[in-house]
Amino acid sequence: MTAELQALRVLADNPAVVDLLGLRPVARAVADIVCVNNGEPITVGLHGPWGSGKSSLLEQIRVELSNRDKTLIVDLNPWEFDDQDDVKGTIIGSVLDALIKEADPALAKRLVDLMKRISWARAAKAVARGALTMSWDFDELADALTPREKDGHPTTLAGFRVEFETVMADVPFDRVVLLIDDLDRCLPTAVLSTLEAVKLFLAVPKMAFVVAADQEMVRDAIASGLGETRRSALFARDYLDKIVQVPIGVPQPTQDDAECYVALLLALRDVGTEIDLGAMAEHAESRRATGNSPYLGETESVHITPTLLNHARLIVTGLGVDEVVNPRRIKRFVNALAVRHHTAEASGVALDSGVIAKLFMLEHRFPKQMRTLAETTQVERDETLQAWEAWAEGGDGGVTPGDPEDQLKVFLGAEPRLAGADTEKYFVLARKLMNVRASSALSEAATDCLHLLLSNDAMLAERGAKACAALSPEAAESVVLELVAQLPTTAEPNRHLQALIRAATNGASPEQATDALRSRRAEISPGTAALLEGVAGGPLQALATELGADSTVPADARTILTRSR
């Protein structure tokens, strides 16, 4: 491995053990809620979309709970269970196992006996069949829920809960808290089984549950498991509301939060464990509490420099609103920027790191303007940049760079300036990665359509789809072919896949689009799946059905693709 490759460090997509997003106040509030003195069972739901920081908030709640006396924490991730056929049994077994490890010999024996002696077959079968058909056999269900004894011990659902409540009264804890993560990634049957385990088996005094999941995806999974009808949709809403007593939305980062987060990610990427993240998080929290920004200002750390804070501000300024409020997308961009910076250095690009960051952000956020620059000579490019930056500053001789003007004005006006920088080597590299030559063969209208379709802004992308529908059949096909041609080399295949779906939905070469989607099915994201699932009729709807049954498609995308089938 070369020295250059060793210097490249990317960030893992793991929940943050250190509070990098200012989530501690919410974590403390949740810990207070679940540790109330009356000890009644309670379920808290942490709701937020993909990448919003649910797992990180759950980790901060774990930290808070670990400092509470007489509290036992049990971590569960149903998505990772090996046995997906008996999710309820696995969850209940995990709780009993955690209690056994902390119990004295006499109590441990009672817990072991409880685990060994419970037979779930009749009750589980009756409940599952009733849930799926929405028409329970009440005689069968009543029979299954009637406590029976085997060797003096209860053997059914109701009996288990009575016995479990009796045992829980003697455990040496005031609270046993289940932290349940990634429920929204599970298949519908696993979602139902998890919620049944919480509500029907384990909800006894001293028990508390914190469930991190996208609320709408969980409701969709419940409805899908019951068959997509109006009644099942209403049932899914009421079912979840009855289980979750305290719904809490994961806070979205503010501009200051995002700048702090990006700065910490950049420092972590650059120097790794040399930076004391814990101390930096404490410093940021104290300044956040007093309203002093930037939150990492006035720190004594040699790694948090003014230059680094400026780079963080530039990144947050350039990212779209959807990305700034999504920590996972921010982290993915920081990783992509690290790879681009590394590639540029390996290609002999001698530019300030801030200039490289701004050029890469221009490519990422404003592809139309980046292609305009990439298709010109160095002299023409510099003149164009001078005119754009003059426009951003409101000076004479300024020329608008086009849509979206409001976002571009803030971005182009931010430091560092691009005009005057020797960017030719960077653009030589960018041309290869952006496949500029192929797109330059498109008509002006088709090129505009392509740029809109590839926008990170959903409204602009939809505008691109409508523009594609207004093109001639030949021009619309050229847009689709260009998207397909770029797909093998793009770093963000799902952006291209979503553009293909939008174009094909409006009649542009659906066969080409379906072939491309099928070829990249192992990379389909939940967002792409949701867009595809919403298509009514035609080859794309047939493809959604096909991919929903394809095991090579990621599980979270499959769940979405099957919810209305």
Key descriptive features of the protein:
mainly alpha, five-stranded parallel β-sheet, 565 residues, 61% helix, 6% strand, two-stranded antiparallel ribbon, Rossmann fold
Q: How many alpha or pi helices?
A: 30
Within the largest sheet, what's the order of strands? 2-5-6-1-7
Alpha-carbon Rg, integer: 27 Å
> In CATH terms, what is the fold-level topology of the domain at 41-249?
Rossmann fold
Q: Tell me the quaternary state.
A: single chain
**Content of β-strand:** 5-15%
Q: Write down the CATH class of the domain at 41-249.
A: Alpha Beta
Gross geometry:
globular
**Largest sheet features:** 5 strands, parallel
Give unreliable regions as ranges: 1-6, 118-138, 140-147, 436-440
Give the termini separation.
49 Å
Name the structural class: mainly alpha
DSSP strand count: 7
CATH architecture of the domain at 41-249: 3-Layer(aba) Sandwich
What integer is the average pLDDT?
A: 82
The amount of helix comes to 55-70%
Describe what this molecule looks like in 3D.
With 565 residues, the protein is mainly alpha-helical. It has 30 helices and seven strands. The strands form two sheets. A five-stranded parallel β-sheet has the order 2-5-6-1-7, with helices on both faces. A two-stranded antiparallel sheet has the order 3-4. The longest helix has 20 residues.
